Amino acid sequence: PGGSGVERWRPYVLRALEMNGLSSSLVDKVLRQIKSESGGNPKAINLWDSNAKAGHPSKGLMQTIDSTFNAYKFPGHNNIWNGFDNLLAALNYAKKRYGSNLSGLGEGHGYANGGIVTKAQLAHIAERNKPEAIIPLDKAKRSRAMQILSATQRILGVPSGSVAIQNDNSLVITKMQEQIDQQGKMIQLLTAILEKDSNVYIGSKQIYDANKKEKDKQDRTRNFFKGVTST
Fold it and tell me: Where is the composition biased (Basic and acidic residues) (predicted)?
């Protein structure tokens, strides 16, 4: 179609939905997906995502890869760069994957749960009108990034400088390693004594008691960091 943008594809989307046996009520959902995929450009190609790195970039109006397009294309609609052909194949694929209501389309490439973006792309933000913070990671924009981070902390009720990493087991691991090292030294010492030809004899019960005492000590250390009281 002539012109630019997404709305010009509305009649083609309606026709593609009909040919795929899908409801015309899905037209706006599909148009939203087109907007996030290609912005309405049937010649769009993605040269930076995981598909491109694997050698099969996403192409066309609905950004399908060659293998998907070829598997779901309609007879006589063989041109991935033709917007309508691409649309037919993409909707056929989406119907098989998401069902006849196309649940999953129309949400774009959202980041409702956050994330870090490293490549240029179209993104759907503030999904369902939920506010989000977008923080630049460019060092040249450090002051702006810190300003937004500070505002984010205030909104979330997090005091400045109080952000902590949860479930850090490094201290527990260090303590356990110390206990293991001590036990190893004790075993080496006992072995050296037993190997010497002397009148010093250590019974098996004494070795068991010493080892059990050391093990109990280790258990108490582990339980302490788990919040468990040991006796």
Answer: 212-222
pTM metric for this prediction: 0.50
Cα separation, 165 vs 162, whole angstroms: 10
Q: Is 6 exposed, middle or buried (0-12, 13-18, 19+ CB in 10 A)?
A: buried
Residue type, 170: S
| Distance of alpha carbon 132 from alpha carbon 183, whole angstroms | 52
- pLDDT of 222 reads 52
Which residue ranges in the chain fall short of pLDDT 70? 3, 108-130, 160-187, 189-212, 214-231
CATH number for 7-108 (one of 1.10.530.10, 3.10.450.50, 3.30.1240.10, 2.120.10.10): it is 1.10.530.10
Q: Check residue 147 and give its pLDDT.
A: 87
- What are the C-alpha distances in Å from 75 to residues 12, 61, 71, 78? 17, 18, 11, 7
pLDDT at residue number 225: 47
